[in-house]
Automatic annotation (TrEMBL), chain A:
Keywords: Cell membrane, Membrane, Transmembrane, Transmembrane helix. The chain crosses the membrane at residues 31-52, 58-76, 88-105, 111-138, 145-164, 194-214, 244-265, 271-290, 297-313, 333-355. This is Branched-chain amino acid ABC transporter permease. The keyword Transmembrane applies.
From TrEMBL, chain B:
Coiled coil: none annotated. Its main location: membrane. It comes from Micromonospora costi. It is found in: Cell membrane. Keywords: Amino-acid transport, Cell membrane, Membrane, Transmembrane, Transmembrane helix, Transport. The keyword Transmembrane helix applies. One of its GO terms (cellular component) is plasma membrane. It comes from the Bacteria. Belongs to the binding-protein-dependent transport system permease family. LivHM subfamily. It is a multi-pass membrane protein. This is Branched-chain amino acid ABC transporter permease. It holds the Pfam family BPD_transp_2. The keyword Cell membrane applies. GO terms for biological process: amino acid transport.
Length: 371, 292
C-alpha cells in the first residue's frame, strides 16, 4: 500500500515538520506534575466561574465539552497517526446514551447527585463499545481508506437517528432532563456556574488521564506505531492492538465530550452531530497543533469563540437580514476552512507548535545572554 | 418480478453516476496518490455555476457546458493553488487540506446561494417509458447512460491512444524519468486534476436532479457512495471504478426498494466495511502480501 510507503520518514534525516518533536525531558514525578497542573487549572476555573457572567460560564463549559473530544482526537491522529472523521458520530453516541440514562432515571423518579456521573460513565462505556468496533476495523486500514470509512461513519450515524425515529425521535431528538444544582450550594447558585463546574471537573479528569497516558509506555507505543509500523513491530509492539487501544481511548473521550454537550444543551438532536462537527473537531486539532494536548485547548477555544466572533462581525456590517443570516452561518466555516489550509501549508505544527518554537527561541537567547 | 426489473434499471442508472464519480476519484489517485475528499464539494460548486448560467440564459445546455468548464477550471486551480504545496510526507496532510477545501467551498456556496434546496432542471423527461404496464427507463436515464458512456470511452481513448494520455501515465508512473525524457510532469498533474474534476462536475449535474435538489451538501452521501464504488473496484483501476459504481448502484437500489430508503446510508457503510475487511485492495486487485 503506497500510503504507508509515503509515511516513511525521509531518508536524508530531515525531520517531518508535521510530527511534533519528542516530548521534552522533565524531571520529577510525572503524575505529581500533572496533578499539580490540574489542581491549578481547577482553581482557576472556579475563580473564573465566579468572576464571569453566566453566559460566559456557559461558553466556558462548552469549551470544556469540546476539549474532551479534541484532546482524544489529537491523541489518536497526532500521536497514533490514525485519521478519524467520525468523532462527531462518537460524540453523538455519548450524547444519546446520556439522554437515555437521564430520561430513564427521571421517569422512575430517582434523584440524587450521583445520577449524572453514572450517566456520564454509561455514555463513556457505550462509546467505548462503538469505538472498539470501529477501531478493530480501523486498525486494518491505512491513510485514505481509514479516512473514507470514518467519513462514512460520520455521514451514516446521524442518518440512523432518523431511520429508527421510534427510539431516537428523528430530527427533533430527545431532551435530557438534568437536575438543578444541589441545595447545599445555596438557593441562588447560578445554573451556568454549576454547568461549568460539572463540565470542567469531568474534562480535567479526562485530561489528567490522557496526559498520563501520553507520557506512559502506551504513549510511547502510540508514537512508535505512528512513526514506523515495521520498526514498532520489530521492537515487539503489537501494532493492531496498539491502534485499537488508541482508538478506544479516543472514542471514550469523544463520548464524554458528546455527553457533556448533551447535558449542557439539555437536549440532543442529529443536527448537532453532523459531518461538519467531525470536520470541525479535526480542524480544531490541526490548528491547535496535532498531537499536543495544549493544542487541543486552543482548538476547543476556537470552536466556541469563532462563531461568536463572526456573529459580532456580521452585526458590524449593514446587510439585509437574509444576507446577514447566510453570512453569519457560513463565515465561521469559511474562516475555519481557510485557516486549516493555510496552517497545513505554512505551519504544520499549529498554534502550539508556533508557541513552543517561540518559547524555545526566547529561552535560548536568554541563556546565551547569561553565559 | 416487475419491481425487480424496475429496481435493477434504476440501480444501473444510479450506478452509472457513481461510476463516473468514482472514476474521477481514481483518476486523481492514480495521478497524485491523493484521494480527493473535496471532490463532492467541487462538483457541487460546478453545479451551482450551471444553475446560475441556466437561470441567466434560460438554456439547460449552456448551463451544462458551463458546469463542465467550471469543473475543469476548479480542478486545475485546486492543484495549482493548494495541492501542489501540500507536504506529502504524511498521507494525512492532503486529506486534511482537502477537508479544509470542503468547508471553504461549502461555506462560500452557502453565503452566495443560501442553504435551501434549489430545484435542478433536467433536459429530458423523467417519466419512464411503459412497456405493457411496466415502467422502464426514462429518457433522462438514457441520457445519463449515454453521457457516462461517452465520458468513459473518451477517457479510455485519451489514456490509451493519445500522446497526452501516454505522458500522463508516464508522469504518474515514474515522475523523475518522465521529467528527464521531457514530459512536463507538473502540467500533466494539473491536467489530471482538471479532467477528474470535470468528470466529477458531470456526475453532479447528472445526479442532483434525481435527488432532493441543489444544496451545498448535496453530494456528501454521493461522495461516500462513490468512494465505496472506487474501493470496491480497487482505487487503482478505472474499469474497476465503473464496475464498482454499477455494483454500488444496484445494491443501494435493491436495499432502498426492498428494505426502505432510510437504510441506504447504512447499506453503504456496511458494504464499504465488508469490502475493506475482506478484500482491502478491491475486487479487481491481485492478491498481494500485506506490508507489516
Amino acid at each position: 500500500m503506497s500510503a504507508t510507503r509515503a509515511a516513511a520518514p525521509p531518508a536524508d534525516g530531515a525531520v517531518d515538520p508535521a510530527t511534533p518533536p519528542d516530548l521534552p525531558r522533565r524531571r520529577g514525578n510525572t503524575l505529581l506534575r500533572h496533578l499539580a497542573v490540574v489542581a491549578v487549572a481547577g482553581l482557576v476555573l472556579v475563580g473564573m466561574s465566579y468572576a464571569l457572567e453566566p453566559f460566559r460560564n456557559f461558553q466556558l463549559a462548552t469549551v470544556a465539552a469540546y476539549l474532551c473530544a479534541t484532546a482524544g482526537l489529537t491523541v489518536l491522529t497526532g500521536l497514533n497517526g490514525q485519521l478519524s472523521l467520525g468523532h462527531g458520530a462518537l460524540m453523538a453516541t455519548g450524547a444519546y446514551t446520556v439522554a437515555f440514562c437521564q430520561t430513564a432515571f427521571s421517569d422512575r423518579g430517582v434523584t440524587g447527585l450521583w445520577l449524572l456521573p453514572v450517566s456520564l460513565v454509561a455514555a463513556v462505556a457505550a462509546t467505548v463499545a462503538v469505538g472498539a468496533v470501529v477501531g478493530v476495523a480501523a486498525a486494518r486500514l491505512r491513510g485514505p481508506y481509514l479516512a473514507g470509512v470514518t467519513l462514512a461513519v460520520a455521514v451514516v450515524v446521524p442518518a440512523l437517528t432518523v431511520t429508527f425515529d421510534g427510539v431516537f425521535n428523528g430530527e427533533q431528538g430527545l431532551s435530557v432532563p438534568v437536575e438543578p444544582p444541589p441545595l447545599a450550594l445555596g438557593p441562588y447558585f447560578p445554573y451556568e456556574r454549576w454547568q461549568l463546574w460539572v463540565a470542567g471537573a469531568a474534562t480535567l479528569l479526562a485530561l489528567l488521564l490522557l496526559a498520563n497516558l501520553v507520557r506512559s509506555r502506551y504513549g510511547r507505543m502510540f508514537r512508535a506505531v505512528r512513526d514506523d509500523e515495521v520498526a514498532a513491530r520489530l521492537a515487539g509492539i503489537h501494532v493492531a492492538r496498539t491502534q485499537v487501544i488508541a482508538f478506544v481511548v479516543s472514542a471514550a473521550t469523544a463520548g464524554l465530550g458528546g455527553a457533556l454537550l448533551a447535558v449542557l444543551a439539555q437536549s440532543v438532536s442529529p443536527g448537532a452531530f453532523s459531518l461538519t462537527l467531525s470536520l470541525f473537531l479535526l480542524m480544531a486539532v490541526v490548528i491547535g497543533g496535532l498531537g499536543r494536548l495544549a493544542g487541543a485547548v486552543w482548538g476547543a477555544v476556537l470552536l466556541v469563540a469563532l462563531p461568536d466572533l463572526s456573529h459580532a462581525l456580521t452585526e458590524q456590517l449593514t446587510l439585509s437580514p437574509a444576507a446577514a443570516q447566510r453570512l453569519e452561518g457560513n463565515l465561521p466555516l469559511a474562516i475555519f476552512g481557510i485557516t486549516l489550509i493555510v496552517v497545513m501549508l505554512v505551519a504544520p505544527g499549529g498554534v502550539q507548535g508556533l508557541l513552543s518554537r517561540l518559547g524555545r527561541a526566547v529561552s535560548a537567547r536568554w541563556r546565551a545572554r547569561r553565559s | 418480478m416487475d419491481r425487480f426489473v424496475f429496481l435493477t434499471l434504476d440501480g444501473l442508472s444510479r450506478g452509472a453516476v457513481y461510476a463516473a464519480f468514482a472514476l474521477a476519484l481514481v483518476l486523481i489517485w492514480r495521478a497524485a496518490r491523493v484521494v480527493n475528499f473535496a471532490q463532492g464539494a467541487m462538483a457541487v460548486a460546478a453545479a451551482y455555476v450551471a444553475y446560475s448560467v441556466s437561470a441567466a440564459t434560460g438554456s439547460y445546455w449552456l448551463g451544462f457546458l458551463a458546469a463542465l468548464a467550471a469543473g475543469l477550471l476548479f480542478g486545475a486551480v485546486v492543484d495549482r493553488v493548494v495541492m501542489r504545496y501540500v507536504d506529502h510526507a504524511s498521507p494525512l496532510n492532503p486529506v486534511i487540506v482537502a477537508l479544509g477545501l470542503v468547508l471553504l467551498i461549502q461555506a462560500v456556496l452557502g453565503m452566495v446561494y443560501g442553504s435551501e434546496f434549489r430545484p435542478a432542471g433536467t433536459p429530458f423527461s423523467r417519466e419512464g417509458f411503459t412497456v405493457g404496464g411496466l415502467a422502464l427507463l426514462s429518457p433522462y436515464d438514457l441520457f445519463v447512460f449515454a453521457a457516462v458512456a461517452v465520458v468513459v470511452s473518451a477517457l479510455a481513448w485519451i489514456f490509451a491512444r493519445t500522446a497526452v494520455g501516454l505522458r500522463m501515465r508516464a508522469a504518474a508512473f515514474a515522475p523523475e524519468v518522465s521529467r528527464l525524457l521531457g514530459v512536463n510532469v507538473g502540467g500533466m498533474l494539473t491536467l489530471g486534476w482538471a479532467l477528474a474534476s470535470g468528470v466529477g462536475a458531470l456526475a453532479a449535474m447528472l445526479v442532483i436532479p434525481t435527488e432532493l435538489g441543489l444544496h451545498p451538501h448535496a453530494m456528501d452521501l454521493v461522495f461516500v457512495s462513490a468512494f465505496t464504488a472506487a474501493v470496491v473496484g480497487g482505487l487503482d483501476s478505472p474499469p474497476g471504478a465503473v464496475v464498482g459504481g454499477l455494483v454500488v448502484g444496484l445494491v443501494l437500489s435493491y436495499v432502498s426498494g426492498y428494505a426502505g430508503s432510510d437504510l441506504t446510508p447504512l447499506a453503504v457503510l456496511v458494504l464499504l466495511l465488508a469490502v475493506l475487511l475482506v478484500r482491502p485492495g478491491g475486487l479487481f486487485a491481485p492478491v498481494a502480501a500485506r506490508r507489516v
